[in-house]
C-alpha cells in the first residue's frame, strides 16, 4: 500500500472538492444569501477539514478532523433536502449533490476505519534522519551503483569474449 504524501491524493478530499464545486455551481443564482452561505460553508468545511487533519501533527488529530469533515458532509445533505423542499434545487440536481455528499461520507468513514488500524502515528512522530544515517545511505547508494557498473562491464566483457572464439 502506497503512502499518501499530500492531502490532494486522498480520494475523499477529491470527492469533497467536487461536491464543493457543484454546490457553488447549483446555487450560483440563489438569492437567499443566508442559506447559500451556510451550505457553501458546510461543503468547503468537508474538504478543508480533511486537508487540515492531514497536515496536523498526530493520528488522533487527523481522526478528529475526519470526523468533523464527515459531520459537515451530513450537514450538506440536510441542507440539500431543505433546498429541494424550498424549491432552490430541482430533483435532478438534488440527486447529484446528495449522491456526492453521501459518497464523501462513505469515503471518509472508510478512511477513518483504515487509519484507526494503521501503523501511521502522524507527521509529528516521524523521526528525522541523522547526518550519519544520510551519509551511510549515500555510501550504500554509490556502492550499489559501482557494483552495478562492475557487473555490467564484466558481462559486456564476457559477451565480447564469447563473440571472439
Please describe the topology of this protein:
Elements: H1 11-26, H2 33-55, H3 59-86, H4 91-117, H5 131-163
Number of strands: 0
Order of helices and strands: HHHHH
Mean pLDDT: 88
- Please identify the top-level CATH class of the largest domain: Mainly Alpha
Number of domains: 2
Care to describe what's here?
With 165 residues, the protein is an all-alpha fold. It is built from 5 helices and no strands. The chain has 2 domains: 7-125, Up-down Bundle (de novo design (two linked rop proteins)); 127-165. The mean pLDDT is 88.
List keywords for this structure.
mainly alpha; de novo design (two linked rop proteins); 2 domains; 77% helix
Task: Summarize, please.
The chain has 165 residues and is mainly α. Helix content is 77%, strand content 0%. The chain has two domains: 7-125, Up-down Bundle (de novo design (two linked rop proteins)), CATH 1.20.1440; 127-165.
